[in-house]
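Quick one, tokens below:
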């Protein structure tokens, strides 16, 4: 693939199993550095990492030689073992393509996770990103919690923020 070029910026989000608070604040910097090391070792670049005690956001550049599934499996598998016994990530993930012009915006958003989650919980955030991406997922489908419904008030929140959300459903 000597003449292959790809510009694949990915905003990836995944949670701890059952969205339990398994990531202590004292270990977040180490976890993000470790995730960056995994990415580098696998041939892709981690641009930004952030999150809270129950989930992470990653912005990375995915090379043409690596599938998204391979990258996420490496990131989650290795970091889960590194975090130690009793730690595990949820099954699945959310992944959203990012335009090169929006990389600085997404990077800033990821780095501001602690502040951001004082206003919006993980479920609201995840469904918001899904709606922006054109998905009509409900919390039960995308979060695996069996609810199958959008949390109270989120439907109006999404509609208010995205006037065209109903057209995408």
């Amino acid at each position: 693939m000597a003449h292959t070029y790809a510009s694949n910026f990915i905003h990836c989000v995944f949670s701890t199993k059952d969205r339990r608070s398994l990531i202590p604040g004292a270990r977040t910097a180490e976890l993000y550095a470790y995730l960056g090391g995994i990415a580098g070792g696998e041939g892709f670049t981690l641009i930004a990492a952030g999150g809270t005690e129950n989930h992470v956001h990653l912005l990375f550049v995915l090379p043409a030689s690596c599938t998204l599934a391979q990258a996420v499996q490496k990131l989650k598998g290795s970091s889960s073992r590194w975090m130690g016994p009793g730690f595990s990530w949820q099954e699945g993930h959310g992944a959203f393509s990012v335009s090169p012009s929006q990389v600085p915006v997404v990077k800033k958003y990821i780095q501001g996770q602690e502040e951001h989650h004082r206003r919006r919980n993980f479920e609201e955030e995840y469904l918001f990103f899904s709606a922006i991406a054109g998905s009509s997922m409900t919390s039960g489908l995308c979060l695996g919690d069996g609810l199958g419904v959008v949390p109270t008030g989120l439907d109006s929140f999404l509609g208010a923020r995205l006037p065209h959300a109903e057209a995408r459903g």
